[in-house]
């Protein structure tokens, strides 16, 4: 009996396999594993092929020019792809398409024809593809379709259901006012990179549902004031990289997102944005703006995100410039080197939403007491690449969790006043001329988790002449690479007991007993020696969802590190991967001023983002309370490793237990099954026979009539697959009905005609 069962399973698998591979034509690979339909990728395509399967996705990309791909009359219908829902035909040197090529494809929903050599398209060629919603014609030279007096001048394409249209990179330097006349359902149009200089004001008028328009990388120097008056749904407009310098009298009531980066604005006037009362995200980055009228943003009371970075703003900005923008959340002012100062008494108004302020490279020399007043909810503050020497008390809000002060001129850390009870978790001080630090500098930042002191001028880790405080018990990352530290000893770890990554590379460390002891201790505590190892850890956390930090074994790198110090080999050791220049292990003597400068000018912002994201991801994805993951409760003074171990052993035990019980259940089931079948064999009563018919499909398959067709196997086998099929099903030639009308019968029909229907099953006892 058992052998029979095994045999039947094998036969079933083999036959299914044959059916599947048999129906995928030569030159094609069919992937049946997905749940959302069969995916076929072909390296050639012509009308001799036959697709016997219900293929939902067809990929004909990158077919070489030599194979001369041609889309002839009804080619897709003819090869059996009537039910196709998505075709990608990108980069295949396609020159022309027969007007009826896509005929009969009533389920076609997405069509990607990007990067071909198409020049002219018959405007009505998709008129009967009534479910086509996404069309990309990106990077085809379609300029001849937008010429006056051409046969195409009445309308561009006629697609009654289209929603997304990608016409980027199509050399469309002119648009005809009639272009979108027969595309009235479109909600997204991408016209980026087309060399468009002027747009007739009627062009977009037929697009009553237009929500999102991308005109980036064109030559548009002005927008006519009423060109969007009938697009009452438009939400997002991207004008990135156009020679646009004014929006005078342009009115787009519904607009929420406007990208004007890399345009040519030099001043922002009182009336520049009066026509945009619903603006939420405004990007003015990389213009040449020198001044902003203090009333410029007053109409935009819903503004949340404002990017003014990479301009030439001369500071200080007027202190009432944001008085009406009480919903402001992020403000980017980075790289306005002439800014120099914040308003003396801060920006007016209560900013209860602002949590992100980037004032990197703004030529700031210091921060006065009231400079950031009222920004009480600030959490991330970027001040890198300025010339800050000191930060007065009261400037920094205790809510700040991330502070980047790298590349400034801070020489004495006691000149930077952290508020007491500070929530600071990540602090960048890299590239400052700091000569010494003391645990006392961090008494107010007791929750600090990540501290970056690389490329400073430290001669020793702690200047411990001061009181023996233990303020950094949450610190898990410390980077003191590229300083001037000659010796370290286990005592230095007293202040950073729970450190998990300690980057020491690029220091002139001597090989002595203290150093050896320290490294032994670090190895014992499984402390990583570089960002590379830490990164690895992070990546695994991302993949595994931060379930088990402790069981992940990674190279700590201390052995190599000690070899390098002690054998004094003049070679580069790759103990740190080049995450960013600050951490490269180089012979300390060879560090030139240039490389230091580089570090200062390019703070490792990617890395900082990563640290933040990982924290958030870990917190969000596990649901483990932040403090359990990142901090070690104050009353536990044990090694953090043991602490986290306790945390993660339970899930493992649970997983093992459940796996065990599943196996147990299977064993019991098999035993019962065997017993039951033995019984049945001896009694052979009618009841048992009926039961056998109604049991599992696998079991029935064994007694299937060999003459019934096997094709519908997959439809009934895989319920998910069957339900997906429904979506793309509509009766042949009837285009008026909606898909939902016609959806239901398919799985029933196939079940009735399938070998699994009761009437098709030959009783087992025969
Ligand atoms: C179309 O295909 C190209 C190349 O495969 C791809 O880069 C692009 O994202 C696709 N476009 C859409 C809208 O799917
Ligand atoms: C669309 O289909 C109808 C009926 O099947 C046909 O009469 C018509 O010519 C087709 N339209 C186009 C543009 O091919
Ligand atoms: C872009 O348009 C301008 C005139 O509008 C024309 O002189 C120029 O050749 C066009 N460039 C390209 C790459 O088509
Ligand atoms: C908007 O619609 C009105 C009424 O249909 C029409 O008169 C006007 O010309 C349209 N605006 C544009 C820019 O086409
Ligand atoms: C603003 O635009 C620039 C350049 O296009 C881009 O790099 C930046 O990310 C944008 N800012 C925001 C906040 O999206």
From TrEMBL:
Signal peptide positions on this chain: 1-21
Region Disordered, annotated ranges: 718-744
Keyword match Transferase: no
InterPro entries reported for this sequence: Leu-rich_rpt, Leu-rich_rpt_typical-subtyp, LRR_dom_sf
Keywords, in A-Z order: Leucine-rich repeat, Membrane, Repeat, Signal, Transmembrane, Transmembrane helix
Keyword Protein transport in record: no
Superkingdom classification of source: Eukaryota
Transmembrane segments: 648-674
Protein name: Insulin-like growth factor-binding protein complex acid labile chain
């Amino acid at each position: 009996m058992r052998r029979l069962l095994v045999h039947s399973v094998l036969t079933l698998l083999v036959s299914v396999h044959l059916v599947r591979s048999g129906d995928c034509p030569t030159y094609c690979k069919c992937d049946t594993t997905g749940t959302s339909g069969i995916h076929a990728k072909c390296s050639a395509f012509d009308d001799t092929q036959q697709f016997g399967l219900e293929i939902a996705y067809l990929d004909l990309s990158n077919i070489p020019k030599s194979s001369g791909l041609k889309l002839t009359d009804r080619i897709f219908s003819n090869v059996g792809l009537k039910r196709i829902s998505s075709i990608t035909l990108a980069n295949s040197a396609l020159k022309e398409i027969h007007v009826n090529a896509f005929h009969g494809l009533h389920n076609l929903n997405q069509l990607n024809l990007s990067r071909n050599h198409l020049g002219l398209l018959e405007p009505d060629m998709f008129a009967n593809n009534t479910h086509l919603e996404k069309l990309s014609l990106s990077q085809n030279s379609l300029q001849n379709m937008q010429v006056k007096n051409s046969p195409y001048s009445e309308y561009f394409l006629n697609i009654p259901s289209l929603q997304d249209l990608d016409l980027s990179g199509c050399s469309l330097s002119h648009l005809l006012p009639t272009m979108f006349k027969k595309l009235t359902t479109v909600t997204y149009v991408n016209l980026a990179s087309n060399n468009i200089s002027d747009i007739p004001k009627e062009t977009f008028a037929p697009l009553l549902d237009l929500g999102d328009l991308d005109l980036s990388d064109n030559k548009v120097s002005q927008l006519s004031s009423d060109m969007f008056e009938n697009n009452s749904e438009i939400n997002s407009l991207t004008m990135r990289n156009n020679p646009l310098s004014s929006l005078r009298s342009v009115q787009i009531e519904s607009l929420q997102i406007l990208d004007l980066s890399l345009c040519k604005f030099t001043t922002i006037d009182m009336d520049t944005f009066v026509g945009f009362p619903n603006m939420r995200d405004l990007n003015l980055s990389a213009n040449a703006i020198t001044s902003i009228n203090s009333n410029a943003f007053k109409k935009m009371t819903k503004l949340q995100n404002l990017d003014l970075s990479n301009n030439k703003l001369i500071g200080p900005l007027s202190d009432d410039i944001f008085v009406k923008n009480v919903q402001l959340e992020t403000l980017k002012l980075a790289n306005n080197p002439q800014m120099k100062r914040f308003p003396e008494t801060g920006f007016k108004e209560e900013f209860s939403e602002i949590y992100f302020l980037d004032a990197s490279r703004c030529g700031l020399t210091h921060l006065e007491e009231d400079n950031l007043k009222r920004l009480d909810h600030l959490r991330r503050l970027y001040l890198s690449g300025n010339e800050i020497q000191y930060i007065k008390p009261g400037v920094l809000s205790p809510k700040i969790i991330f502070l980047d002060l790298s590349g400034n001129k801070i020489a004495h850390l006691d000149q930077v006043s952290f508020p007491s009870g500070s929530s600071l978790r990540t602090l960048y001080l890299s590239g400052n001329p700091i000569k010494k630090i003391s645990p006392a500098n961090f008494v107010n930042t007791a929750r600090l988790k990540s501290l970056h002191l690389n490329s400073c001028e430290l001669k020793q880790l702690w200047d411990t002449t001061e009181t023996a405080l233990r303020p950094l018990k949450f610190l898990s990352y410390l980077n003191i690479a590229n300083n001037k530290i000659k010796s370290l000893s286990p005592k230095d770890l007293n202040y950073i007991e729970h450190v998990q990554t300690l980057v020491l590379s690029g220091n002139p460390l001597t090989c002595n007993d203290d150093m050896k002891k320290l490294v032994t201790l670090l190895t014992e505590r499984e402390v990583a020696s570089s960002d590379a190892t830490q990164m690895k850890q992070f990546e695994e956390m991302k993949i595994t969802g931060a379930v088990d930090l402790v069981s992940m074994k990674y190279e700590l790198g201390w052995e190599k590190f000690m070899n390098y110090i002690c054998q004094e080999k003049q070679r580069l050791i790759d103990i740190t991967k080049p995450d960013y220049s600050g951490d490269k292990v180089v012979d300390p003597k060879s560090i030139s001023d240039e490389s230091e400068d580089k570090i200062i000018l390019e703070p490792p912002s990617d890395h900082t983002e990563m640290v933040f994201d990982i924290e958030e991801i870990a917190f969000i994805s596990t649901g483990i309370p932040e403090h359990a993951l990142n901090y070690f409760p104050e009353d536990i003074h044990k090694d953090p490793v043991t602490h986290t171990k306790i945390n993660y052993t339970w899930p493992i035990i649970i997983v093992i237990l459940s796996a065990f019980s599943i196996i147990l259940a299977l064993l019991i089931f098999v035993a019962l099954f065997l017993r039951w079948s033995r019984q049945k064999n001896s009694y052979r009563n009618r009841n048992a026979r009926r039961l056998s018919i109604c049991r599992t499909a696998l079991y029935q398959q064994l007694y299937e009539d060999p003459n019934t067709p096997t094709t519908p196997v997959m439809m009934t086998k895989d319920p998910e697959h069957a339900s997906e099929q429904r979506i793309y099903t509509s009766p042949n030639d009837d285009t008026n009905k909606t898909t939902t009308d016609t959806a239901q019968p398919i799985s029933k029909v196939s079940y009735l005609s399938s070998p699994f229907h009761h009437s098709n099953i030959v009783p087992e006892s025969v």
